[in-house]
Fold this protein.
Amino acid sequence: MNASLRAQHAYAPTSAPIRSARSIEYDVIARITFRLKRAIESDKFGDIVEALHENRDLWRALAVDVADPDNQLPKDLRARIFYLAKFTDIHTSKVIRREDNAIALLEINTAILRGLKPAGIDQ
């Protein structure tokens, strides 16, 4: 290892930067939304089903979180998120049965991302 690399290593941050819960949520939803979008664009049903499964898991986790009485979000917002989780579950089943497409699910996630968007990030 040369002196320059040793210096970079020595002065590199020793821990990851502190991130807010909102920023972590944004990253998780963005990653899942990107996979869903990519699967829809590929038009491969197997890829779509995999992305739908991951998206459904996300929304189920969100529903559990907002159903917790200790959740600090306003009650009205919690109810709307819970409703979206229920819609996502029902609509996902329709897509898997090939009765509908996944565009509405992609649009919901994109709207949520706009609401969570950290300052300074362009979409």
About this structure: The radius of gyration is 19 Å. The chain has a mean pLDDT of 87. The first helix runs from residue 3 to 11.
